[in-house]
Amino acid sequence: xxxxxxxxxxxxxxxxxxxxxxxxxxxxxxxxxxxxxxxxxxxxxxxxxxxxxxxxxxxxxxxxxxxxxxxxxxxxxxxxxxxxxxxxxxxxxxxxxxxxxxxxxxxxxxxxxxxxxxxxxxxxxxxxxxxxxxxxxxxxxxxxxxxxxxxxxxxxxxxxxxxxxxxxxxxxxxxxxxxxxxxxxxxxxxxxxxxxxxxxxxxxxxxxxxxxxxxxxxxxxxxxxxxxxxxxxxxxxxxxxxxxxxxxxxxxxxxxxxxxxxxxxxxxxxxxxxxxxxxxxxxxxxxxxxxxxxxxxxxxxxxxxxxxxxxxxxxxxxxxxxxxxxxxxxxxxxxxxxxxxxxxxxxxxxxxxxxxxxxxxxxxxxxxxxxxxxxxxxxxxxxxxxxxxxxxxxxxxxxxxxxxxxxxxxxxxxxxxxxxxxxxxxxxxxxxxxxxxxxxxxxxxxxxxxxxxxxxxxxxxxxxxxxxxxxxxxxxxxxxxxxxxxxxxxxxxxxxxxxxxxxxxxxxxxxxxxxxxxxxxxxxxxxxxxxxxxxxxxxxxxxxxxxxxxxxxxxxxxxxxxxxxxxxxxxxxxxxxxxxxxxxxxxxxxxxxxxxxxxxxxxxxxxxxxxxxxxxxxxxxxxxxxxxxxxxxxxxxxxxxxxxxxxxxxxxxxxxxxxxxxxxxxxxxxxxxxxxxxxxxxxxxxxxxxxxxxxxxxxxxxxxxxxxxxxxxxxxxxxxxxxxxxxxxxxxxxxxxxxxxxxxxxxxxxxxxxxxxxxxxxxxxxxxxxxxxxxxxxxxxxxxxxxxxxxxxxxxxxxxxxxxxx
Length: 806
Fold this sequence. Notes:
The chain is globular, with a radius of gyration of 31 Å. The chain has a 4-stranded mixed β-sheet, with no helix packed on it. The protein is an alpha+beta fold. A hairpin with a 2-residue loop joins strand 19 and strand 20. Helices cover about 35% and strands about 15% of the residues. It has 27 helices and 27 strands. The chain has 5 domains: about 25-105, Immunoglobulin-like (Sandwich); about 115-210, no CATH class; about 225-290 and about 300-305, Immunoglobulin-like (Sandwich); about 390-560, no CATH class; about 655-805, no CATH class.
């Protein structure tokens, strides 16, 4: 049995300091002021904001003392005010030495205001999750009851509740006994459990609506036109809180507090999480979170920034190599985080080669770089890797993942031609906008002209709308096919407007695995169900007319690749940033929306502007990022940045992707991988066939190319991967094969120290450390040199330093 050397790397993480909520205040403010409650089903969320001696505002809503003057007129339910009887009273708010008294006017409590199904009931169904995809909103419904997903069709939902099943879901004679009311409170068994409690505002509103005859409501009633949130952004301490106040604005100019009726989600729950009633809680992790608020299909976001509690007044000014560094240092200063030191030369060189080429530097390259004493050696190394053909190999495979170059869908010839065309664009460094424009308007024989295969991987207007919007714009339009996007402004008119550019696309068979792809000219597109005609248009744009017999895709390609199209340049800049820094400025990298803002907006703007200024030269953008000090930071954290995952204060460690790892093992062992049907010496990053049999690539997460993103590939460690690296006969064969790296060194009678040096340089990109030397000495002292070398190499291949980019 082999002896495995375990190389452990431990990081000491300083515990995050927790500051108590600042109690000293110079003043307090209560919102709204004054307060008016009109109607027995109207609530008002309160918000109490304190201002400290330093001018900083902080929320004390749930820490202040609230007292109502006359509880027969209005009552407090936590921090929410509800009217009881008509009249006027006062609300007294106390915090520390400060007190505020507000007037409260209560009216129309004797009558339950007319309930409008769309305006009043639909928000409850959405908030309770009744119309979610996992409940009655799924395609088949639940237990014979179906609602439109996320409430995109209120009229159909009204009919389902009131008219279907012989009206048994509402009981006008006994409103409280209606299935709608009884099941949501679980007084009648409900598979989803209790969603409301008896006497709650939601329960009363549902009962009141049924009591009024379950009306649809006045079609002329004011409609929600927008939603506001206060505060829209706030800087909070760790382990603190913030009460949000959400207000709906109606078409007649009136407003209503909907804090308790809105839906909330956080995109970074470790930084800031939120309760149903708009109460934000921050954790112990510094960073930023976007809180998404959704009410009646109107979406807004509140941005919560949580710096470290100990912000230094004497924050040092790190050196900068370019504008990227300045923008990151500014953010880190605001967050109270210090950047790590610069990575060593050996770490930088290995990182540079793996990130750009998907290839390890050779021992000779490591030695040459270490011996280079010129101050510009890193700059020359960057220029060198960007000029190598391996870059085209690696990035063609990455783009193949995004653009669905799947052999199973395209056939061997189509997949090969598509890959070859992509590699040519990258090898010649053709401007990004030019090759995307050619791709989006491609016409021809799929067996001869690579880019037309994009229209075979996604064949229908529906599939092409999803693929183009996500791959080139960072807009995930899937939801808008059936309903208004729950987290963004896109609706069915946007989805089918874009689909209109692809309506009329033809696929004429030419033989086995080959098709003639062309556009037959404009054809009208309609939104299903409502049968509404929509003109071709880009998302959020204006419909385009008068195509005649021309290809509508030309207009789309012109719009997509315009220099002033922020989606296009920002998305590809974010893709490249994520590849090099380990995390996108927007994450996921292709999910751009107002409710998922970049962690450093100024930096993303700068990267996009740099790309446009250089006429979409991707290598110039790569050079700009690689030259920054931010890219060259160490992955070893300091006490201030150990928990930072958003601000790029230290390099984020990431596991080698499947193809890169297989190539790395082959390079280090000196035994090339053999792929069925491929020329000898073909590397995994050169494969155009994503379905080529390989247990290793499948186990380590290669993409099946079924979605227009890199999300199909995975670098998450699994138990199967660990067992494969430790026990696989294939790896043993690579290590022990005749002509392997160890075999060659033993043949030329290399000393144990020479063998150890060579293996560490090949696998880790650096000379051995003292602990590795000591472990190797024990192995060589206890057995034959060949066996010792093989055991040592196997241990290196299982080590943290080998498997990850640092």
